[in-house]
Design goal:
90 residues, mainly alpha, DREAM_LIN52, Protein lin-52 homolog
Length: 90
Amino acid sequence: ASPDLWPEQLPGVSEFAASFKNPITNSPPKWMAELESEDIEMLKELGSLTTANLMEKVKGLQNLAYQLGLEESREMTRGKFLNILERPKK
């Protein structure tokens, strides 16, 4: 008999494993219940990409997030200079 390597129950693992043991049913998993059709289409699109294309998509999203951060920083600085963000005095 081999020793138990993971004697403690990890949160969420048993539910995740049970979802694969159950026979395939027509009802979608719990996590898909809140998804809209656009979200599902996006998942299908991302799932069909090759590894290289997926990495390119991720890099594009990282660049977009960086550009948005720069733009937000400029707008916050602008608001500071215009005293838009100043708290009202009591």
